[in-house]
Amino acid sequence: MVFGLANPDRFMRFTRPLMPVVWAAAVGLLLAGTWLSFTAPEDYQQLDTVRIMFVHVPAAWLGLAAYVALGVSSFFALVFRHPLADAAARAAALPGAVFTALALATGSLWGKPMWGAWWVWDARLTSVVVLFLFYVAYMALRAAIDDEAKAARAAAVLGLVGLVNLPIVKFSVDWWNTLHQPASLLRAEGPSMTAAHLTPLLVMGLAYMMLFTALWLTDIRTEVRRRRVLTMRARAAQEA
Q: What pTM, to 2 d.p., does this model score?
């Protein structure tokens, strides 16, 4: 089923009825998550600052998840030279960069009252900056090369190289002595957060995932249409 959707025509037919559902789910979850975030009680240590986490943590999750989508799509585009995989990699770059930038910005807003500094160059923060730079470099490389086929191959290689940074981001707090707090959810002894704070965090995480999915599919569909138009123009020019 999944490999069948690699055909652009099948992909377009399959995703057409899904688009309004995915967008509606994203908007609904965002509204619910925002309401839960503002009505959640203060944290006994972080006070009202805890509400920043409901934006920061899901943004960081999606920054990583979007790069996984970019890297896996780049692999299929480079190895199998499938245009839809290249379109998927290209479509993941901008939303991923935005989510990563949001994670960095909200992390700084949280860090000032909690750490007393807007920014510290510890392993987690530095590796997330590197992740953001990989997104920027991927988009810049595609824009810098006029030949789309060469741009796609070069960007795919860069996208695969960037995958090396993902485990560094994930495990940096475990591998090095870092100011950033360790994982609060995926722990052997269970989440360290109370249900009052865990619920809005998970709802916002799901909302961000649905929003990325909606943006990603929309961008892929737009790219497929763009390439079809270019192909039609090229054929018309040849016939003329």
A: 0.87
